[in-house]
Structures are given as C-alpha cells and as structure tokens.
Design a protein that fits this description.
About 30% of the residues are buried. This protein has helices at about 25-45, 55-70, 70-105, 105-120, 125-135, 140-165, 165-175, 180-215, 220-230, 235-265. The chain has 10 helices and no strands. Helix 3 runs antiparallel to helix 4 and helix 5 packs across helix 6 (about 140-165). The protein is mostly helical. Mean pLDDT is about 85; it is low at about 1-20.
Length: about 270
C-alpha cells in the first residue's frame, strides 16, 4: 500500500455510496409502501381468501380492464363533476355567509343559532328527507354536496374574519384606504390561510358525502361502481374505486395548497 508524503496511508478507492438507502425515500411514501407490503404478504400467505382481499396484481389488472372499457373514466367524470358543482356552490355560499357572520353581530344574533343547529346535522342525515322532496336524481347529490361544503367554509370564513387583529383595520384607516381597499389589501390576505383550511376540510367531507350518496341513491358514479362491485362480490372493483377516490382527494388537497400559495404570493406575502 502506498504512503502519502505526510506518512499517512492512502485511502483505497472504491464505489461511492451515500449510506442513506431507504432513508432517502420520501416520508409520504413510507406508509403506502408498508401497507402494500403487508397487503401482498397477506394475500401471498393465504391469510385472507382472494374473494375477500384480492392481490395487488389482481387489482392492477381490474383497474386496467375498467380503464380500457371506459367504465372507470365514465364513473369518475360523473362523480368529479358532482364534486366540482358542490364545491363551487357550497364554497361560494359558505364564504359569503361566513363573512356576514363574522362582520355583523346582528347577523350572528339572528341566524347564528339556526346555523349551528343546521351544521350539527351531517349532510348524509338529510338524505331520507331529501329523497322524499327531490327524489334520487342529480338534485339530491348537488344539495348534499353543497351542504357538506357550505358548513366548513362558512365556519372557517367566520373565524378568519374574527381572527384579524383590530389593529389591521385601524392601520387601513390611518393610511386613508377605502373600506373595499382595506378589505382587499389588509383583511383578506390575513384571512386566506384559514379560509383555505376550511376549503380543504370541505373537500374531504365532500368526498365522503359523494361516495356515500352514490352508494345509497345513484345509478352511476364511483360510489355506485363500488357498491356494484360489492354486490357482485368483486372486491377488486371496490378497491379500485377506493384508490381512485383517495388519489383524487390527495390531488385536490395539493391543488388547493398550491392555489393558496399562489394567492398569498400574489398578495405580496413572503411564503
């Protein structure tokens, strides 16, 4: 072995490794991969029969078959359209109503108790009454999803208005800003995080209400596809529906986070 001029041994050259291994994996992927490993192990060892827990490869095959036949895309398109309508209506109505509750003590006194009672009843609790009133057509899904989105956004908007420090309003008055300018340039930027938190919560509740409503009172959509698979004892179809809903929920949450970031950046906040 050769010696360096300093008298120290030269370090042998070899393959360079980071030593990180699995620790370089994104933390968000650890739980899904662990679940996938447990799932594969349970099916490979016969811990659960194939009729109850199909193998991952069987689910992938079913996903490909449903996608190729167009059934999956058709069901997803219908469900996501319902979800978009519910979020648009419930979110906009909840925003306006929540701001009114936060800004006016009189509105809070007149309709606050009624709103809290209305919010205490889950959206799915209205299904039996609504079926008698509007049937099981699209109107039922729209009303249920609108209600599911309306309540979280209204509560978040009300709390966001009240969370703005009074000094912000005084600062706007000192600067000579008009009421609309004070709202757009001072109050609204401070409210954005809480409002988007309510939107993300609303989107989660909307997904739950959507799937349940389609399971109980629908003839198309992801929820109907899942209940159809359960009726035929095809659990692979059910799991495909669960994967689609879960993936769409994550994508929507990430989209809302990105939109919040862009809005706050546009408003001049350091995010």
């Amino acid at each position: 072995m050769t010696l360096l001029a300093t008298g120290q041994e030269a370090t042998p050259r070899g393959p360079v490794t980071t030593g990180r291994g699995w620790r370089s994996l994104s933390p968000a992927l650890v739980a899904p991969l662990a679940l996938l490993v447990l799932w594969q192990a349970a099916t490979a060892t016969g811990l659960l029969p194939e009729q109850i827990l199909p193998s991952p490869s069987r689910v992938v095959q079913t996903f490909a078959e449903l996608a190729a036949s167009g059934e999956l895309s058709s069901a997803a398109r219908i469900s996501f359209w319902r979800l978009a309508v519910g979020l648009a209506l419930g979110g906009s109505l909840g925003l306006v109503f929540g701001l009114a509750l936060g800004a006016s003590q009189r509105v809070e006194q007149w309709v606050g108790p009624t709103f809290r009672a209305f919010a205490a009843v889950p959206a799915l609790g209205w299904i039996p009454v609504l079926i008698l009133l509007v049937g099981i057509d699209e109107m039922l899904k729209v009303i249920i999803l609108t209600k599911a989105c309306f309540v979280p956004v209204a509560i978040a908007s009300r709390d966001a208005w009240r969370a703005v420090p009074p000094g912000y309003e005084e600062l706007g008055q000192v600067l000579g800003l008009s009421p609309s300018a004070r709202f757009l340039r001072i109050r609204l930027p401070a409210m954005v995080p809480l409002i988007f938190g309510g939107l993300r919560l609303a989107s989660g509740q909307a997904f739950v209400s959507l799937v349940t409503c389609e399971m109980l009172a629908a003839t198309e959509g992801i929820g109907y596809l899942m209940i159809w698979g359960r009726t035929l004892f095809q659990m692979d179809v059910v799991i495909v529906g669960m994967i689609v809903v879960g993936t769409a929920g994550i994508a929507l949450d990430r989209t809302l986070r990105l939109l919040e970031h862009l809005i706050r950046k546009r408003m001049g906040e350091d995010v």
